[in-house]
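REVIEWER CHECKLIST
Item 1: Sequence provided? yes
Item 2: Single chain? yes
Item 3: Sequence as submitted:
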Amino acid sequence: RSPELPDDKSAPRLPLWHASQALQQLCSLATELRGLWASAGAEHAACLDDTDAICAKALAELVPRLEIWRKRVRNLEEAVEELSNEIRGGILDLGGQFTSEFHEAQQHQRLCRQLPLLQRLGADIKEQRDRAREFRAERARLLEALGRPPTEERRSVPDLRAQVEALQRELECRTGEAEKACGVVRSIFDTLDMKPSTEVDNAITKHGSCYGITDEEHTKLLERLKFWQAEQARVVAARGSATRTRGIWLELGETPDPDADGIVISLCDGNSAAFGDNGVTDEAVQQLDARRCAWEARRLDAVEERSRLHAALRNFGGDGLAEVVISAHEGLHRHDREACRAKLREVQASLLEAEKEQRDRLAHIYDKAGLDEEALKAFYAKLDEAQSLEERQRLIAEEVARLEAYFASISGILAQLEDLTNLVVQGAGFEAARSAEKGRFSGNSAHFLEEEKFRKLFVKRYPQIRDGLISRIDAWEAENKGHFSYRGAAVKEKLIGMRSMEAELLSMPSDLSLVGMLLQVLDIREVAVAPRRPPKGAAGGGSVVDRG
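Item 4: Structure as written out by the authors:
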C-alpha cells in the first residue's frame, strides 16, 4: 500500500519523508498513477504490469546499494570481533582487569555504538599492558637478583605494582642483612685469626656484601654465620672447658684417657703448646668440646646410675637401711657407686625371697586363669619402681588381692573349662592314636569299639558343656561389665562361631575333627596317644597333655 500525502500517521513509516524530496515526488506520482488507473478503468493485470515495471527499476538500484551496506556491516562486525579478541587477550594478560568495562561495551546492540567504545577500551588496555610489561620486566629482574625462578603469572597492573614493591623491599632488606652477616663472619675470622675453611667462607671473604643476596646464598650465609658464632663461643669458653672437664673426672674418680684427653691435660697443666697466636686453635676447640661433652655425658650417666641405686636401695632395704648407706656413699665417686651396688645385691636377695610366696601365688593364678603373662611382667616392672619398701609391699598385696578376687569370680567358668578340656584331651588322644597307629585295621578291634563309645559320649556331652560355658561367661561379663578371655582367646565368641559347623561334624561317624578346633581354642598344644587296651603280649600305653 502506497502512502497518501504525508500526514502525522504516515510519517513514522517513512522516517526520511521530510528530508527526501525524491521520496515525496515518488509518492505523489504513485498517487497520481492510482487516480489515472481509476479514471481509465484499468484492469488488474495492467495495474500489476505497471507496478512490476516500477519495482524492477527500483530493485535494480536497491540491490547494489543493499550489498554495499551489508558489506559495511560485515566490516563493522569483523572490526568489533578483532578488537574484542584483542581486548580479551589484554584482559587475560592483566589478570582480569577491565572485565566489567568490556561486558558493559558489549551490551550495545548497534555496532556503530559498540565499536568506538571498544576502541577507547582497547587503547586503555594497550596502555595498561605496556605498563604491565614494564612491571613484569622489573619483577623478573628482582626475582633473578633473589635467585628465584621467573614466573609467568598474569596479574593486574595494581597487583603487579604491589608485587614489585614487595620484592624491592625484600631485596633491600636482604642486602642489608647480607652486609651485616658478612661483616660479622669477617670479624670472627679476624678475631680468631683463622682462614676460610669452606667454599662459602671463601665467597664471603671474596665477595663481601655482594654474597648472600639470592635465597640459596642467603641460606648458606646464615648457616655459616650461625656456625662461626658457635665456634667463637666455644673458643671463648675453651679455657674454662678444660678445667670443667678435669673436675668431672676427679669427681667421678675415673682415670682420663691420655690420648683422647691429652688436650685437656695440657691446658690444665699450663702447656702453651695447646694455644695459637690468638687463643686456642680450631682443632683444640673441637677436641675440648668433644671431650667436655663426653665427660658431661659420662657424669649424667653416673647421676642416673646413682639415682637408680638409691631408689633401689629404698625399695629393697627400706628407708632406714637405705639412708645409712646413702649418707655414707652419696657422692658420684666410683667407690660410692660400687658400695651402693654391693649393698643392693645383698638386700635384694632376701627381699625377693620374702616375696616368693606372693609371687608364686600370682604365677599360679595367671596360669590357671589363662591370663597374659606380659601383664605380670609389667606389674613386676612397676613394682621395682616403688619408692619405698612399704609402697612395694602394698602394691604386691593389692595385686594378689585383686587377682584372688578375679580368680574366685571365674571359678565356675574355669570348672567348666576344665570339664571341656578333659573331654577334648581324651578325644585328641584317640585322634593321635589313629594317626600314629600302624596296622590299624588288623588285630584286636577292641580299640575301635572304645573309640566309637567315646565319640557317642562326646556328641552327647560336648553341647551341654559348651552351652553351659557360654551361659556362665555371659553372666560373668554382665555382672562384671568386662570381657572374658582365656590364654588370649575369646572363648565365648569362638564357641558361638563354631556352632554353625558343629552339627555336621558331630553327625559324621568316627570323625572327631571338632576336637582339633577346640584344641586351638583351649591352647592345648601337644597330646600324646591316649591309653588303649593293649593286645595280648603288648605293653600298656600312656598320655601326656601339654597346655601352653
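Item 5: Key structural point noted by reviewer: The chain has a mean pLDDT of 78.
Item 6: Recommendation: ____
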